[in-house]
User: Fold these one by one.
Assistant:
Number 1:
Amino acid sequence: MSPSTGTPMSLALRLDGLSHSFGAIDVLNDVSLQVPTGHITAVLGPSGVGKTTLLRVISGFETPASGSIEIGGRIVVRDGRSLVEPEQRGVALVPQEGALFPHLSVGENVAFGLPKRRSAQARARVNELLELVGLGGFADRRPEELSGGMQQRVALARALAPSPAIVLLDEPFSALDASLKMSVRDQVVAALRATGASALWVTHDQQEALSTADRVAVMLDNTITQCSEPAQLYSHPVSRRVAEFVGEAVKLVGNVEADGTVTCALGRLPLNGTAPRGIVTVIVRPEQIELDESPNAPHAGTTISTRFYGHDGEIDVRLDSGETVVARLHATRLPRSGDRVHLVVSGQVLAFA
Amino acid sequence: MARPSRIPAVLAVPAAAAVFVGLAPLIYLFDAGFSRGIQGVVDEIMRSRTLWLVVRSLTLTLVVTLASVVIGTSCAWIVVRTSLRGRIALLTLFALPLAIPSYLAAFAWVSWLPGIAGFFGAALVLTIVSYPYVMLPVAAALRATDIALEDVARSLGISPLAAAWRVSLRQVQPAIVGGGLLVALYVVSDFGAVAAMRYETFTWVIYGAYRAGFNPTRAAILALVLVAIAAVLIILERRVRGRTARTRLGRGLNRRSVQVSPRSLRIAAWTWSGIVIGVSVGVPIVSVTSWMRRGTAVTDWGDVALTIRDSFGIGIATALATVLLALPVGIAIARFSGRFTRATEASVYVTHSLPGIVVALSVVYLGISLVRPLYQQVPLLVFGQMIIFLPLVVGAVRNAVEQSTPVLEDVARSLGTSRMATLRRVTIPVALPGIAAGGALALLGAVKELPTTLLLRPTGLETLSTSIWKYSVVSDYGAVGPYAVALMLLAAAPTAVLSTFSVMKAARQ
């Protein structure tokens, strides 16, 4: 759950116990989340977990069965009753593939949500925002003349123009190809930061979430299981499922000792955090596993396959004790399939009952 | 994303009103038809003359449908699967008869060969004006099937003709059946051709009952039987269409190029195309031009101009009213699911099964019994034509709205735009080209429409269609000439262009 219970912080968005279902199928189950003003929060989850429904509930196109929503300090849904229509909520959507209005020019698209959209003031605002997303001078173009990445940036400018309480981005880059994705993403994040906008950003892409958001909310099984800063999320997942979902995980059976260490096929290892004594699942990140070239090194095994990625690579090793583990190694040090290796773990590991 | 099922009142209220307007004729028909109770209805239907009418109508329908299937499929084949030059132009020529009103084609033939009147003439004329209903969907379906499949069949040792028959034709079978049902619906609803050819079917007898100082109950019961037949055809066509859509799912890119056809096949294809186009388009055009030559000396051009003005005046009024009525219905069907929408959609299809003569008849009676002052006034005429063209325009609005993603509307609302303003600023402008095309088709259709105009027009007002009718029934073809030419140029030709365009667009998607 959200750790921000100390000092009162102004919130752009507050979700409290939201539940929703389509017929017999639960899509949201007791979802709570807080987005502080000026922050970018990513909602990270596999597809089909209810992320899009969450955005539709927040923006008012679906009414939740129960729970409350507060946007910019104003209650818009109380106990499953919608009090405010979508157009009054001050949320601005940036959907997949931009969804620019095809009958309007780029400038008219950006001006769409402005109160006096044909005034000189509005025109100035449009130019300012197009400048911000790197598309100054494109106001008179037609949407279909722009590339996918440009359309996505116009969609963001259109969302930012009326200064909404929060911008909602729904997998905004999933339609772009990989090479374009990163640069557009950086431009979008820069524009959000420059305007100090608050944003809720839905994605299934871990790298995208971890590298751009202030905080990442992991959504599994139709609810938010953890919301933390990215580094915290990776090093201190609250459950085995979160640990397995965020980043790669090598799972081993272990036993927690009285002194707080854990014993497993890779030796006696220091624990990150605490775990109840007894049999546990130990989670080791592949980059923690290294080759041990010291004489008489323990934990021997045979390399059964290798994958070369360029800057680094991975090997699968079947330990002599029977378990199979994955190690991520510098590319220059990759053993070959069939080679005998010795492994050692650096740093603390996670353990879950 | 699933369409939401709760429909806002902004749309629901006008949509319900439109549905009520569309169903008004049926309400009247049931009221008048059952005025002597269920026994009266049964007696009337079991009269030998009624059964005789059913047999005559169905025989004509069957013959025309079979002939249209053969002609339509062969023409589609020529356009899509041979290497003839100018196949796009050929497609347009094959589609042209769609735009020629059946009464005009029929008068063109009887003025030339008076002996043709009767069953043969009616069947011939209805076949040449309705085979495009088979040709267009089959051509679209053929384009969507992969020629590589025929190549595979031939590599397995099967002759080219057998491969075409066993592979491609089997795949386009739903399109053929669907098109055939549309032809059947056209034939049972047609008034112009059977009237001009003096072949008695339901529509002609219903008109007679009205002219003969009417027996409202009998006319209403006959109309109900006709509506029932049409409804069966509509339901079957809908079923087949659902299947066609499914068979086209999930195809990748298809090879479009065709192999060069052998010389003998090209000659055969050209000959057949020449015969079809000559009979369906050539004869009407030649006839109408020859009337024109006979008529110019006695023609009152001021009268012609006035008629054109009145025709288009009523057409424009009809188109505007129909678009206004169709907008909420089309948007509701495109954007919402749920019981209300399904009921709306179903009633639009019921309206579609109402032949023009039935609509005309019911609006006459509604006018006499409910709004006497409006009887034989322009508003009532526009009202009747609006009912006839409502399904067409609803379809156009729906297709146009479905082309754009509903996310556009969500974005607009999240930017602070109300539901009503979103319709005005996003939904309708985005769909405008398609909506305008639907309105234009309604305008041109209203200019060509005959039975409703005949029955509902104010005394003394003449349109192009009623003028053609008025002079043709007394065989004064010299006088018909200018009106017929005006109708062909101002209504038929634009209709052909518009519908070919929309079919080609649909085929591309």
Number 2:
Amino acid sequence: MFEPWAEKYKPHKLSEVVGQPQAIQWLSKWADFWRRGKPEKPAALLYGPAGTGKTSAAVALARELGWDLIELNASDKRTFDIIQKVAGTAATTGTLLAGATGKRLVVLDEVDNVYGTADRGGYRAIENVLKQATNPVLLIANDQYSIPWTIRGLCFLVNFRRLTQESIFKTLERICKSENIEAESLAINIIAEAAQGDLRSAINDLQAVAIGRRHLTIKDVVVYRRDKEVNIFEVLGQLMQATSARQARALLWALDRPPKDAIDWISENIPRMLTEPADLERAYEALSRADIFLGHIRRRQSYGMMGYAGDMMTAGVALSRQGELKHVRFQAPSSGVLMGRTRATRAVRDSVAKKIAKRCHTSSREARKHFLPYMNVIFRCDKNVANRIAEELELEDGEINYLAGV
Amino acid sequence: MDCNYSSRIIEPIQSRCAIFRFRKLNEEDIGHYLKRIARPEKLTLSPDGIKAIAYVSEGDMRRATNILQSASTLRRKVDEKAVYEVSAIARPEEVRQMLELALDGRFEEARNKLYNLLINQGLAGEDILDQVHREIFNLKIPEPVKVKLIDKVGEFDYRLTEGASERIQLEAALAHFVLIGDRLKS
């Protein structure tokens, strides 16, 4: 089974958190306050760049003190009711593990991506939670200044810094040892340096190059790095030259874009590269299949299908080629961007068509093709009738504007 | 009584009726009727306007009348331009040119035509495929090939209804036209 090493080697105790002695010291101090009763600052804000151990430290803290851990993602609107319940007054009844004296540690991750940032409603909810909290709350964020001072003022601030290259190096070395990989120091050092203080990405990089190997040499790492930094045009060139499915699908990763964007890049450029009509047709058939999977994923959130979509747009396209390849200048997807711009308008068009279809007992397709044009004219020319129709169909402002051509 | 198919009406009723079958109207019929409306409404109706309405209405007189009325709110003179302005349909020539470019192996030019329809004119992919379907009958290719193409266009339309994206599916359809065009050359 594939297990991310970044998970497998997570710290179990606070003392195992790598390279953050000061942050850990502060965090322990805050936890000590809580063990003696409710401190002046009921919450702590752990802030710092990605991959520096904030979440790991929170989890390790709960485990070490025997506190129940309740982890909530702050970007989800629905969680606020839950936060109120678990962090607020309802939590005084104690916990499952430690009975009446036990604490619950409520962890709110990614607080700088809070839902409702625009109207600050999300933050107000957090603020209320903190004011009423009878249990310790940990907020986690990348940038402390992205959080309103009203919340920061209620928090004990704990700063996580980028790790030194040395502490990353040591950790990677330790992982290699327990994975029985003989690694050249220089190879590990290249990874440690590239990570720029982000331990998680360093561990991910190490796993990417070292998995399945007994020996890790500087050569493996150099190849990996070049792959990682390769630009999208180079990858497209490699994709069309790929001769195995495995080789082609690996390039999707190198494209470093979500499949729904990658397909735009691929479809933009393959017609110019392929010389044989039969190749073009097969390649597009593969793209069409990939697109169907993407459509399914969009509609039903069936993300499990992503693999098929990715494989069809890479391996499916690459292996449809039998003829020669033309060397061309690659281009960024122009149409994709343009379609993106009209996508919102298209969505409005389709929602109006749906309402008409429902009211007139016809299909949305029929409504779009044969009813919408008249609606357009009516909305442009006759305000009174337009208003009556808008009311009848319960049209929203955006839809009315669309029909009126505003 | 009126119905779409007389065969769906049970025999005992049919036998008691005189049956009048109404077929789809052709361009001439539609033109004739539209002119009858245009005169008292004081509209100028150009020949290319009639042709356009006949195409857009697909032989449906009610639709034809609606289109005439819509177009006349824009201009007193109803011509081709006015008709296509008030309908969610491309001019048939544009669709035919796109298909001919593809059959000729000029995929990128065909694709640019497609982008024009999708993006500049804001047409829906399904509606463009509808028109592709109609234009296939006008292409200068062997009849059995037309049937194959219709089947293929239907397949792409089906994929659209399954939630696939308009642009990729229509490009794939054009790529198929490129292949067919190439096979016909050799």
